[in-house]
Beta-xylosidase
Amino acid sequence: MGSTPQRSRRRRWSALLGAAALAVTAGGALATPAAAASVDVDYPTHCVPPPIAGIPPIDGTTTGKITVDNATPKVGDTVTVTYTVVKPAASNPTDLALPADIMTPTGKVTLGGAQTGSVTVAGPKKNDPVPGKGPFPSFSMTGTFTVTAPGAITLSPGDYNIHTSYILELDTPCTVTNPPAPVSETVTASADPPANTRAISLGSASGAPGAAVTVTGSDFTPGATVTLAGRSGAAQTADTATVTADAQGRFSGSLVVGDRTTTGVVAYEGSAWNAEKGAGPVAYVVVDDTPVPDGSQKLTTTVKAGTLSMSQAGDAVQLSAVDFGTGGASTGTLKTVTVKDFRGGPAGWSLTGKVSDFTGPGAKIPAGKLSWTPACATKAGSPSTCRAGSAGVVGSAGATLASAPDATLTGGEFTADAQLSLDVPAFTPPGTYTGVLTLTLT
């Protein structure tokens, strides 16, 4: 008889936990800042609590959101997906306060459109404490999929399950009542062209004005007509010739270079230069051996290549305060980063950032809670034009703040900024939390 009260207490705790697990699964997923294209969607869910809970199924409306780290991937790229249950359909139905870090979510994201199937997602065993009768915190679940087809791929919230580990190990599965749920996010995939392995070499690196240079090529389309052309910086000169690639895609031809401003030679298929069907430029110098007239002096100058560098307007950002019990977005503005690309070559650049966890008084805010909305500007006259990175999570894995593509001639001066938002959980202990955002320029 001595063990009967203990078993009775165990059943009572199990029932309370079953109810708690059900309330969580009708809603929550760790709030993750959304990419600009994603939207919240509502969909009915049918949640079945563990049998030991003694609670009937609950049918409610869940608000969910799907976000991705790359909304414009290429075929073959891997896309990271985050499934967030934004608004639970129920709160803690009991007076029992639940401790932190007892809930582990898993689920599915449904793919449609150009690519069908599902993505398995899972979240960490992490949650804020839940007061009795109080609202449940959210949980996030992440996973990846590989793009296999070009076109618009839709992503919709799917079924999910919450596993609770508190006294007993319990599962509460929730299914979408009328699948598929509404589309929350769409990615547009582009075809990934095969790698361009075309290559050319020159018989000499310099010559007098009007001299012919031998151009040898490989890996061009067999039988294709190939144009050989001089290049002056980013512009093509009037010096051109055509050759035909043999059955193995090789050729050898002669190009007469008469333009004294020529800095390189290219070869390409088609009617105009195309980086995907061309090769070069290979450096070539026209040696101007024009005699200097009597009473004259020949003046020569050299433009020296510089470096790729960055500087910051400061090294500290104070984000706005949030209230204990409410939490939410702690916002601020990244100190302006100036990028100077004075190399003068064909290479572009990429400026990325990653952040550490925000540590505070005996607690931390995960790095994945920080998101940004990047912006960049190009100084007038720059050969390159910078591109802002996508809005979304920064996290410990990192994200792109700004970049400039490869081109025939690159360079310039650029400024990059971002609006920052740290999603602070409602019951984060009061105090100051600090994280380090590291920027890398390559």
